[in-house]
Amino acid sequence: MSDDSTDQREYDVVVIGGGPAGLSAGLYTTRLGHSTAVVERGGGRAAMMRDVHNLVGVTDATSGNEFLETGREQLEADGCDVIRDFVTSAGETGDGRVRVCGTDAEYVADCVVIATGFDDVHPRPPLPRTGRGLHYCLHCDAYVFVDESVYVMGHSDSAAHVAAIMLNVTDDVDLLLRGDDPAWNDETASMLEDHPIDVIREDVTGVRNGADGWLEALEFADGSVREYRGGFAMYGSEYHNGLAADLGCEINADGTIAVDDHGRTSVDGVFAVGDVTPGHNQVSIALGEGAKAGIAIHWELREFPRDVAETESAGPVRDAEVPAIPDELLEQAVEFHTYE
Q: Cross-referenced SUPFAM superfamilies, in alphabetical order (predicted)?
């Protein structure tokens, strides 16, 4: 609940989360004429990327932090407020709007976009360096390990299947149980028997890195040493769905937020995009989801065209009522123009 001392800021749209999906949604709603704030805590999976992969127009030399900083600068140049704050809860205001409570302020909006992502569950140490031998996204990084020695850490069905998928790019794949008992089903066990994958039961006791920081080998409890260029940890995900639960949104059994093709949740005015929703966890897909949600929000919030019933009761739209874009965004857009 707010009090008189709370800094309350009102917007058409508040986006919670400053990853690729959240930034994309904020960019679209801003440029489509809606006052928008992107409220982010910083960090996230995209910020941890040493190199951005699989994104047309962005080279592998670009880090995740560089990519996100460029995005933030773009949004601010277009008139979006990008705010560093930690959002703790969300709820309805009673008049059809949504209140988002942060550590530093409260944000009230007609529409809210939840783009809070998830955390990968990390295996216990010792571990290779993240991005230099320890990876979490098969679709992003399998290309890096073509014809290299690769491990997959985990003891689930998904870990076993990722190990088998890696056989499409290399003939040297180990599945590391790290002392855990297999949790896969009989069908997965048969699949492993029919594919050239070594299942290593002993735990990892040490890591050997090269001068460039990349993994060279792992040491095991039985004294053996196995050379690897890198690999993938498969221990599941922890979805940041608490705000969606606060607002009464439907949550899927796996922890993702249930959405339609345009990011709409089961609650009016609440959208969700990116890694916190079902689907492939890719930057390019997150950008598209943010764009689709931004456009869907515009259809819900835009002033014109008014429907026939409204113009019949209130009269035709007057010259003084257009354009509908707020003055501050109008000024920003005019400044952006380079036609002359």
A: FAD/NAD(P)-binding domain
Q: Which residues of 62-88 are buried (b: 16+ CB within 10 A; e: fewer)?
A: bbbeebbeebbebbeebbbbbbebebe
The CATH superfamily assigned to 134-233 is FAD/NAD(P)-binding domain (3.50.50.60)
From the number of C-beta atoms within 10 Å of its C-beta (0-12, 13-18, 19+), residue 191 rates as: middle
Which CA distances in Å does 149 have to 20, 152, 165, 172, 216?
Answer: 31, 11, 14, 5, 10
- Burial (CB < 10 A; 0-12, 13-18, 19+), residue 123, is middle
Contact in structure between 93 and 250 (CB atoms under 8 Å): no
98 Cα distance to chain centroid: 22
- The HSE-up count of residue 96 (CA atoms within 13 Å, CB side) is 4
Q: What is the CA radius of gyration of the chain?
A: 24
Longest Cα separation, the chain? 84
pLDDT in tens, 83-125: 999 999 999 998 999 999 999 999 999 999 999 999 999 999 9
Q: Does residue 1 register a pLDDT over 50?
A: no
Q: Are 165 and 138 spatial neighbours (Cβ–Cβ below 8 Å)?
A: yes
Tokens of 205: 């006791």
Going by C-alpha positions, the residue among 99, 110, 130 that lies closest to residue 7 is 99
The whole-number pLDDT of residue 327 equals: 87
Whole-structure pTM value: 0.93
Q: Where are the alpha helices (DSSP H) in the chain?
A: 20-31, 64-78, 138-141, 157-165, 186-193, 242-246, 283-301, 308-314, 327-336
Which ranges in the chain are annotated with CATH 3.50.50.60? 8-119+237-319, 134-233
Sequence-distant (≥ 6) Cβ neighbours of residue 172 within 8 angstroms: 148, 149, 150
For the segment(s) 8-119+237-319, the CATH number from 3.50.50.60, 1.10.3210.10, 3.30.160.20, 3.40.50.970 is: 3.50.50.60
Alpha-carbon distance 86 to 39, whole Å?
A: 8
User: What tokens does 11 get?
Assistant: 């917007």
